[in-house]
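hey so i finally got around to running the thing on that chain from the lab meeting. sorry it took forever, my laptop kept dying and i had to restart like 3 times. anyway pasting the input first so we r on the same page abt which one it is
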Amino acid sequence: MTENLTLLITGTSDATPLVQSLTWSGGYNQCARTLEFDLVTSSVDKRLPAINAELGNRVQLYIDGSLRFDGFIFSRRFDGKNTKSFTCADRGFYLNRNEASYKFRSMTPEAITAMICTDFGIEAGNIAKTGVTISRNFPGTRLYSIIQTAYTLASLETGKKYMLRFRGAALDVIAKEPDSSTPVLKPGANLLSVSVTETLETMINRVVITDENDNQVAIREDANAIKLYGLMQTVLRRQEGEDTGAKAQKLIDDNGLVQKITVTNLGDPSLISGNCVVLQEPVTGLYGLFWIDNDTHTWRNGVYQNRLVLNFRNIMDEAEAGSLPVAGGSGSGGGKSKITF
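ok and heres what got predicted. didnt touch it at all, straight out
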């Protein structure tokens, strides 16, 4: 394995020399980042250190001395070839596997997230501030869906896209925005290959808004897209307490031409889902800022490479869990069981 990589497993001080291959990956719509690796073992070769990697053991991955993954083994496989294979997930795994019931009244997503962190013993990291208040009931709902729904509703007002991810033991909610440190990928430097796929399969270019009796009250459309690609219409019923016009426009904005770009490049641990990258590729004519939807980091035979799925649109994993409160309902809270992640 490469010299800049260190793999630590509870009960084994340093498993790095035993790693045959390792893959670290994630996606904008995946609550947990995962880590998969193969270890060489032997019951007869005493030169190899014993590996005591059990289900639930903590695993940490360091790259260039920086902690990049902190999670737990949730699956393992043995074979007759002196190899053990392990699959790990970070604390997002637990955020997605625990449910609770809450009733929130005029609370911001950041306050909702802070409450959930307190109730479940989660370390709160950098939590994006929106200033948008929501009221919603969440009966028996996954923690990830609660937080993501709150930020999805806030996104309608702020126009920003949000994403949950863990940084070590701390939960961060980030606003997906470019910064001055955005890396550049280009041939002859760090870009190895690129492929592009375009599709209209999920396009929506007209939204008909109806009232509660299904009478048409408004239309939002992209006239240019209709002219180019034909009519692709959906119907949206107006809901009390929601900005239906903004929701209709968002459906059109988020369901246009889909351009999927897949690249492979020399390994860079900063290129993870939710971040962005500048792509400069003269053959395909791809120049500009792109968002990382999915990332796969692979170490094999001493070589570190990335495989990235890029998107020219900034999108988020939108959730619509729970329901609007019934008039006269009150209170905030619930789900007070103490579970330490």
